[in-house]
Amino acid sequence: MIALAPWQALLDALGWVVAEIYELLPNYGVTIILLTIVIRLVLLPLGIKQVRSMQHMQIVQPRIKQVQQKFKGNKQRQQEETMKLYKEYGVNPFSGCWPVLLQFPILISMYSVLRWPQHPIHVPTDSALYAAVSQQIPETLDGQPDSPQIETQAQINELDLPGPTSGTSFLGMNLLCSAVHAGNTDATLAAQSPTGQQLQYPVNCGSDVVDRIPYYVFAVLMFATTFFQQRQMQNASPPGASSQQQAVLKLMPILFGVFGVFFPAGLVLYWTTSNAWQIGQQYFMLKSRPTAEQMAERAKAKPQKAEKKGFMASMMERAEQQRQLRGTGTPKPGAKKPGNPKPGSNPKPGSNPKPGSNPKQSGSGGNGSGGDPKKRPKR
Asked: What is the dihedral of CA 235, 240, 243, 245, to 10 degrees?
């Protein structure tokens, strides 16, 4: 795993929360479900913002299309007018990205905490959950935290394994196993000893075809809920989404369907529960759709913070500066400034030629030499 101290601290904190929930309700499956609900509640504001952002983009999209058609040959003007529309309706096109991006770090964190064997241990060693898991995957010779650690495969073979699964069972599944291990009497979970040796722990993941059914059911549920949740997002997204976005929406259910086969059943339970929550949340939110008038009124009523500019405000300011520069224009290098006469063309101080007279001519000769005609040189 990533050996960064803040990341390890986050994993340890998450493991502590799992262990505390397990202390209250000593059922590993219920613990994971409650932990999922806690995480979804923490992410609820971002989830609401994501759905609202997609709805707002749907409403503004027809006007964006009009702007694109009106300024078809001027990309910069398109961007300026689009930014004005976003500001007018209070739309932030980037606010819907964060919930999607946050799912992957959370999934990686849950995988690190719920995957066993794990090194380092993220669950407190004095917790009931650690004791339940140690009956199947002991880190030490007698399962106690202060005992010598297991370093060789021979030490594992001397233990009475596989141990009882009562501490990690849920709906007929051992949540430490995956669908690949289900029904396999020779199922093993790999680990690495502190000395770097590869270890194999024999684990009870069932012994017949019937024992595989709940694992396969949850793998299918993980795929189905991911697919349905992505379809909800696709229907709520503005029309004309990019081909890359469409490809991601189609690929994610397949990708997580494969994960559902190889991930531990505990992680599959977490992801399925998270999808079910998200589906219900989006269902109720998509029923309440704001109008364009409501969006414009909210944007006008929203107080503007002068001391701190947001991303959209900065982009609007830069676009306005570019527009002003194009409007006023800047002189090219070497160009003469307006009102600046050519060198030598200014009359001398004190000489004020009469209107209509030629300053180059003086007297009747018209040769421009000036002075008294008698003093002219002879030809």
From this structure: -50
Torsion of CA 23, 27, 30, 31, to 10 degrees: 40
The answer to whether the pTM exceeds 0.90 is no
Alpha helix (H) ranges present in the chain? 5-24, 28-42, 44-70, 75-89, 98-114, 128-134, 153-157, 213-236, 243-262, 265-287, 292-301, 311-328
Residue 140 phi/psi, 5-degree rounding, is -120, 175
| 212-217: Cβ within 8 A, 24+ apart | 212/179, 212/182, 212/183, 213/172, 214/171, 214/172, 214/173, 215/173, 215/177, 215/178, 215/179, 215/182, 215/265, 216/179, 216/182
The string of DSSP letters for 123-157 reads: S-TTSHHHHHHHTTS-SBSSS-TTSPBP-SHHHHH
CA 253 to chain centre: 18
List, for residues 88-132, the tens digit of each pLDDT value: 766 766 655 666 667 778 888 888 898 888 878 899 999 999 999
